[in-house]
Amino acid sequence: MSLLSDYNPLAKIKIAGHIIENPSGVIVVVGPNSSGKTLFLKDIERYLLTGNSGGVVCNSIDPQPPADAEELFHELHARHLVRLDQQQQCQVNLPHFSDDNFPRKPFTLKSLQESGKSFNRGWSANNPNFFGTIGLTLVAYLSLESRRAVCAEAPAFKYQQEAPKDPLQALQLDSDAMKVIGEETGRVFGDAVWLDISDHSTFRLRVSGAPTPPVPGETTNPLRANKYFPIHQAGDGIQSYVGVCICVMLGLRPVVLIDEPEMSLHPPQAYQLGRFIGERSSHSQLTMVATHSGYLLRGILDGGKNVRVVRLTRPKDTFVARSLPNETLREAVRNPRSRAEATLDGLFSKSVILVESDGDWEVYGASCESMAAYPSKEIHFVATHGTGGFAELCRFYTSLGVPVALIADLDLIADTDKMAAVLEALNPCVDHTALIADLRALSQKLKALPPAITVEQVKEELNRLASADYTWATDDDNRLRSRLNDLEQRIKRIRRLKEGGVKAYEPHPDIHKLFVNLVPKCHHLGVFLVPAGELEDWVPSLMADCGRSRPKMERALVMADCIRTATDKTGDIWAFTQAVVQYLELRAVPNQSGS
Fold it and tell me: For residue 29, what are the β-bridge partners?
């Protein structure tokens, strides 16, 4: 390996709330809108192109000096990445992948040596004499336009006498990379991209119109090759995809900054591009990706091993960062719930509300819509498909500083182990010992109560079921199973938690008092238990026509419509969801002192 391909010029990046040590491998930058993701990438690019450490998002950037500045220069010169003019001044001889016009500063070997020596004199801030001169050889900033520019036509060159200066020239010398590009685009787009070098003056990428590239006779004959479309006549999506693949695979720069690579791509294509970035990026150098896509993020996590996720937020005009520990990240990725794009999309929102089902999502989302400023709050709902996923997803979001709360039916309060796990995940720095003890005492009292249905009522129901005539051909088996399931639910000792909520325990003053004390405490900690019992018991005057015999999702859609069209949107479910949103807003300002 060469000195340049091994060289990572960044040692440390400091942002309020976090320090990124040894930024290498793949770093995925996530966060809500206007949280500074693009500005963060621009800070790094600006530093490497000007040597000025201060930025908009970054508090400071510490460099990693090259092992030997003189040897690095000689390699740049030998590879024709820099050239000498008549005054023996050096100029970087590379295309600039950026939307900004930074000046290309001439330099000499002597000036580069002198600036390199400053690394050994304790220098750890600005150094425009070093990075400002060779920065173009170190960083590629890939916006949509610059990704398309990677695919631009390039002049042919004499590979025996000079090194490639353009991406397509570098691709022409790497037959393995050309093969990968064809296979990748053929599989993802059904339209393989190939490099046309049949015109001996110009290299250009073409699309084959099929999952495989044309046969050699088609690609080497300029008349035949010319009948295939050049890539610039294809969509922005495939150009952007190929531009990223070329830069990542060929290692054109030690630092590759990719801004929203999912632009112009469908979700499955975004996932595949993420997988490619994760698999192909160098572990020793740095590929930094700013994204809004859970599909792309999932692809990177599935494909990569050396991956870090940094989440940016912007409370009160201050950019703050949090990083998810690798161990927590890997644990979350292994769980199907957190692999789902709906869960990962929570990382791009200001806050998250966890609910038990998609039906709950529909109803509570409809209630939140009654708030005038709700769209600007950017709250993302995630259905965990039961209460078993609450704790792990709370831990996942909390680790990245995403404010999270959950809404659950009241019967969760009787499962003390789940409650303890959720409370610990939501508030890891709080001592929950006394609260858990009270929850356990309540659970024991609830389970000590007899079922709401009497033994005589159970016998009567069983006798009715036993004496009825059944014909399996008319679907009586399913109707009988439904009746038995309903009876089983009514026999459960804690069934009244769902049937009547807190109010159902007024005849038991000691239990009711515990409810009145503990439910608000749980709300204060982000666990919003439904005091009415369950979803269907909100706004009884509106829900009378929903019918519990309908499938739950169908019933939830009707309920959501009722909530949206209600004339009086005060109290009841609206006050409940507003309290959830207010809790999340209070949690939205993170502690900036941690690292």
Answer: 290, 310
CA-CA-CA-CA torsion for 336, 337, 343, 344, nearest 10 degrees?
A: -30
pLDDT tens digits for range 513-544: 999 999 999 999 999 999 998 888 888 777 76
The CATH fold assigned to 1-138+253-324 is Rossmann fold (3.40.50)
- What's the confidence (pLDDT) of residue 120? 52
Task: Please give the average per-residue pLDDT across 332-344, as a whole number.
Answer: 72
Asked whether the beta carbons of 46 and 139 are under 8 A apart, the reply is: no
What pLDDT score does 554 carry? 83
Distance CA 185, CA 264 (A): 15
Q: What's the 3-state SS for 357-415?
A: CHHHHHHHHHHHCCCCCHHHHCEEEEECCCHHHHHHHHHHHHHCCCCEEEEECHHHHHC
Q: Give every CB contact of residue 43 below 8 A, 6+ residues apart in sequence.
A: 55, 56, 57, 58, 61
- Please tell me which residue, 82 or 525, carries the higher pLDDT value: 525
Q: Contact at 8 Å (CB) between 23 and 17?
A: no
- CA separation, residue 544 to residues 36, 536, 558 (Å): 48, 10, 11
* CB atoms inside a 10 Å sphere around CB 135: 25
- CA–CA separation, 298 and 275 (whole Å): 8
C-alpha to C-alpha distance for 515 and 297, rounded to whole angstroms: 42
Q: Provide the 10 A C-beta neighbour count for residue 219.
A: 19
Token pair for residue 10?
Answer: 């960044």
Task: Give DSSP secondary structure letters for 147-170.
Answer: HHHHTS-EE---TTTS---SHHHH
Max mean pLDDT range (70-84, 154-168, 341-355):
341-355
Q: If residue 186 lies in a helix (H) or strand (E), which one and from where to where?
A: helix 175-189
Q: Which two tokens stand for residue 588?
A: 């939205």
- Residue 202, both tokens: 């110009």
Look up the pTM and report it: 0.85
312: closest CA among 335, 289, 334?
289
Q: What is the pLDDT of residues 410-435, one digit of tens each?
A: 999 999 999 999 999 999 999 999 99
How far apart are the C-alpha atoms of 324 and 342, rounded to whole Å? 18
Residue 232: both structure tokens together:
């610039």
pLDDT of the residue at 83 = 73
DSSP H stretches of helix in 16-157: 37-50, 69-78, 109-117, 131-134, 144-150
Tokens of 566: 């209600």
Determine contact, residues 312/320, Cβ cutoff 8 Å: yes
Radius of gyration of the chain (CA): 31
Phi-psi map region of 309: left, alpha, beta (phi>0 left; psi -120 to 50 alpha): beta
CA 144 to CA 134: how far, in whole Å?
24
